[in-house]
Amino acid sequence: MKYKKHLYRLFLRHWLAFLLSALLAVSLIAVGLLEHRLEKTITYLTVMMLCFLLSEFIYLSGQPVLRQWKIKSPKKELTIVILVTLIASSLLIYWFVFVDQENTGQVIRIVTMLLRLLFIFPVFLLIYFLAIRRYRPHEIGLWNFKYWYVSLPLIILIGGVTCLTFPEGIQFVTEFQKSGLQGFLVFGFLTAAIPEEVARNLFQSRLGRVINSKSVAWFSVSLIWALQHIPLFGSKSGDYYMATISAMGILPIGLLWGYLNERFKSIVPSVLIHGTNLWGIHNIF
Fold first, then answer.
1. CA distance linking residue 151 with residue 144, whole number of Å
2. pTM check: above 0.85
3. How far apart are CA 141 and CA 220, in angstroms?
4. Which of 9, 115, 144, 185 is the S-S candidate for 266 at Cβ 3.0 to 4.6 Å?
């Protein structure tokens, strides 16, 4: 009963977040039906909902004392984050859409790599917030390991359902054979999870403060993150229509990570889930 009341109050406070999530779910189910992926789509969405419910149960059981994000200059900091996001998106489009990567000169490769390191990974944001704005790491979600355990039941849930329903989609074996443990850690955490969750958290928290809506910020930033994958998906398949559909397909799991960042005021749980995200359950299209 206490849990039901908690969810009801949460719904009343963040009804817009629930509405946006419902509209996304209906849209993906419609596309899943058209693309003959309905079973996997429904399974994926169900698992994401169960992850949310389980996270809220853990939150309610532990009753953590969570402070609001410390944000010194919301508008100024949001402007910087948006500028970095625009540069990062432009670099992704340039590298994956317009550049012939196999025949690109060494100078272009080095310059592009340095720019990607600064704005995609994102070294510039860390320098700005830690060195210039003088935030402490835990004030932007780093090094707050208090709620790391939240990730464990979610990883087990996602992995368990994938093994039972779509074992052919599991990517762990392929990645280990191709890259080994070291390559897996670099690919999973240093290349994807840590930089993406740092940028997501800074963007989402500042946007939410400026527009006074955590729900809109949460959904909007996750949507931008998903759309940034279109150049990557499109460069592999050559089909940018399906690349857009695939990008929308990863949005629910991005929403889960954004929710965890805001709920537990730490990127650690989302980084742990994101970094081990080779189950493939989100690859519905």
1. 13
2. yes
3. 19
4. 144
